[in-house]
Amino acid sequence: MNRIRTRRFAAVTSSLALAAGVLVGCSTTADSTTTVSATSATSVTAAATADDAAADDANATSAATATNASNQNATSAIDTHYDADDLTWDASDEVAITLADGASAGEGVSVDGNIVTITSGGVYRLSGTLTDGQLVVAAPDDETVTLILDNASITNSAGPAIAVTSADEVTIDLADGTTNSVQDGSGYTVPDDATPVAAIASASDLTIAGTGTLNVTGSTNDAINSTDGLVIVSGTLNVTAADDGIRGKDYVQILDGTITVTAGGDALKADNTEDADRGWVRIDGGSVTIEAGDDGIHGERAVEITDGTVTVTQSVEGIEGQDITISGGTVAVTASDDGINATAVSAEAGTGGTESDDGSLLTISGGTVTVNAGADGIDSNGSVSLTGGGITITSGAGGGTGAVDANGTIEFTAAQLTANGTQITSADQLGTRMGGRP
């Protein structure tokens, strides 16, 4: 089924523009850092001479101005594959596929044992059970495929349960009032990297929508993985994964829905580092509950939360990305290391863990944010901008940790911040002098 689509735009932080904007007027040294906590603010300020304080105030003001300017352009219109028209079709166009071991049937669908293959664009309604089989989408690259899961259950012991090897894009629609399940096996590989290793593995853009329920178990690696973009429009998703829970290499956008993720690795992840406008996670609504063995949310380029409820109950680092923006919603993060961590995409290449300003930016301008961290509550290898919202931070008690830590500048204006039980009421309490840790 071919459609002319007007693409919906999604906002994402442009890391290159931010890096240039934040560095204007910021005179950091190679090993400068700023740490903010309820106990450290006084000692940071007291350590500065009058001349240093005056110079640092000028630098902080200049950097804050640059931060504000960059924030005005921080979210740019970025095309995603999703359009609301993808969710409308004529019921008469639906092709029914009945799943059954050794006896799957459907007009225009090829069946080889328990492998059911869709080779052309269209709308397909799937019901029934494959106890050890696979649904394959191998449509032309310029055609779209919609899979309506209508009380469908697919388990594959030797590979992905749903494998999209080719199509322009694929939509999985969860039929109203239904419960659907997808599970792969353990210890398998995918020949020729045709798809990711995941229970739902897609080499094309993927959309999940509808009002039903989808239970996904990734036993070998990931639960849901697209090597392109992934948009979740609605539905109830219960996701369990040996490694990453929900991954879109280019982007993950959540518009609505009730999503629960239990992952051995990262729970939500986008990790494209090659394209400047890709590698981001954005949450615009819904309810997302995360238990992660590593990062709760990881956007290599950017993470944005504009609305919805995000709860990270367990993680190493709760939210991580080069540029992190929270402008609305309710966010609660529990982490054994840093709660919210902004770090450049090159961190793994050798700049991570230093005390130099890497140009990353962490911005909270609205919403309600609660962080309970084993190390720093808010940590940026670049700058921090707290301009709105209600923020409550409990950070670790170890040496060098604090409620707010930045290698660059810290801007604090209209945010309501409570750090380790102490309400921060003015920028003076933040100790924004560019200098070493107290």
From TrEMBL:
Keywords, in A-Z order: Signal
Signal peptide: 1-19
InterPro entries the UniProt entry points to: Cthe_2159
Signal keyword on record: yes
Source organism, top-level taxon: Bacteria
PROSITE patterns noted in UniProt: PROKAR_LIPOPROTEIN
Protein name: Carbohydrate-binding domain-containing protein
Upper lineage: Bacteria, Bacillati, Actinomycetota, Actinomycetes, Micrococcales
